[in-house]
Structures are given as C-alpha cells and as structure tokens.
Amino acid sequence: DPSTEIMNVGDKSVLQSIDFSQYLQPLETVSSYTTTVSNGLTLTSVTTSGASIRFSVQADLAGFQQILFSVTGSAGTKVNRTLNFNIVDSTSALGNP
Fold it and tell me: Is the pLDDT score of 97 beyond 50?
C-alpha cells in the first residue's frame, strides 16, 4: 500500500492494523515477525491475531519515517511490508513559531 499516514510529533499510541491474508496462503496465519523502525517512531505495542498484526505507534521526530514488518506465515511464506509515515510538527504546520 503506497499510502502515507500523517501524524503530529508527540502523537501517542495511534492504533494501526495490517492484514497479511492477501499475501499468505489460504488459512495461513502469522507465526513470527520482526520489525525495523525509523528513529522518529516508537512501537508501543504489537499483537498478532490470525493473519493480522495490530500495533500502536508513537511519533517522536518530524520527517518521513517507516516501519518494516518482515512476517513469516505458519506455512513458511515470507512477506515484507513497509509502512510510511509523515510526521509533522503541528506548530510549524499551523505557521506558529
């Protein structure tokens, strides 16, 4: 998905979800995952349920940030998904000093 989530610096625990079912085999579930997170984001929680991963993210620094999920399914399918985030400083965006 090429879309970019826009967040403000300081936004905390924004709940996100990724459904991997379209990339996995029928009835396959997420058995393990690793993440690579840009320095401007913090994952505050991650849970799996079936073929989905739910996570909360906190925005720490302004700029273009990414999270890479590397998933292995229960049948051995490997999938990488990169999520894009544009973190903005809300005071700058409003024109305030």
Answer: no
